[in-house]
Amino acid sequence: MLNSVKPTRLLRHAIRIGTLLGDEDIVLDFFAGSGSLGHAVLAQNAEDGGRRRFILVQLPEPLPKPENSATTIADLMKSRVRNVMKKLNDEDAGKLDLDGASQQDRGFRVFKLAKSNFKPWDANAPHDAEELARQLELHIDHILDGRTPNDLLYEILLKSGFPLTMAIEILTFAGNTVHSVAEGALFVCLERELTLELIRAMAEKKPERVVCLDEGFAGNDQLKANAVQIFRTKGVTSFKTV
To answer: Where on the phi/psi map is residue 161: left (φ > 0), alpha (ψ -120 to 50), or beta?
Structure first.
């Protein structure tokens, strides 16, 4: 695969033919290799001011010989795309913004297929008291070990019906972090210790939906009941815990 790297100039020509300059077209490469298509999209956008986006899909195939910190083709692809973005951003930083046009908003997110971050309820488990008690414990401590807040955030994002490319803003309420999705349409709070002050601060912003970790209530049913009422009085259409 690495011996047949797609030429960037040819890809840019195809992009100019197959996309509309004024649209946010998405260019997809299911066999991304070293990331030539992503490189081409970024370079073409830089030349004509386009707002095209790209999706690169690549299996983590081992490299015949590791290059720097890259041990797989996917690693090589990620490194290339990041280097191209850095180069273009550095070039933009040296230009005068004479016409008042803002610099291009370049971003790059990497996702990997994985199991759910939450332990599932096993409906096929034996229906004895011991097994039922174990299953109930999963509802209390149901997050798999080693999962990061970002892991949880993006799974909640998908299960809430939002695309992975959705804009996410990090807000701070009462010294706690809250993720605002789609300009406040959804608040995701992954704090492990929720307080009434934090709940009220979120409710004051009147998001459409709120998702919190059940663990954050630490078994405090009164706090959870208060949260339900506070969000309801502020017009929040959906409040859920996971």
So the answer is: left
Residue 236 burial by Cβ neighbours in a 10 Å radius (0-12, 13-18, 19+): buried
Judged by DSSP in three states, 57 sits in coil
Instruction: Tell me the two tokens of residue 111.
Output: 């996702």
Residue type present at position 157:
L
Closest CA to 60 of 44, 78, 45: 78
Q: How many CB atoms lie within 10 A of CB 192?
A: 10
pTM: 0.75
Residue closest to 48 by CA, chosen among 3, 82, 12, 83: 12
- Domain ranges for the chain, please list them: 2-93, 129-241
User: What's the average pLDDT block by block, 10 residues per block, for the chain (242 residues)?
Assistant: 73 95 90 95 93 94 87 94 93 66 75 86 71 67 86 94 91 95 95 95 96 90 95 94 90
In angstroms, what CA-CA distances link 236 with 34, 150, 171, 172?
A: 45, 24, 18, 19
Q: CA-to-CA distance for 163 and 159, rounded, in angstroms?
A: 10
Query: The tokens 């209530």 sit on which residue?
Result: 217
Give the integer Cα–Cα distance in Å for 80 and 36. Answer: 8
Q: In Å, what is the CA distance from 194 to each residue of 173, 180, 207, 208?
A: 11, 17, 17, 19
Determine the 3-state secondary structure of 152 from DSSP: helix
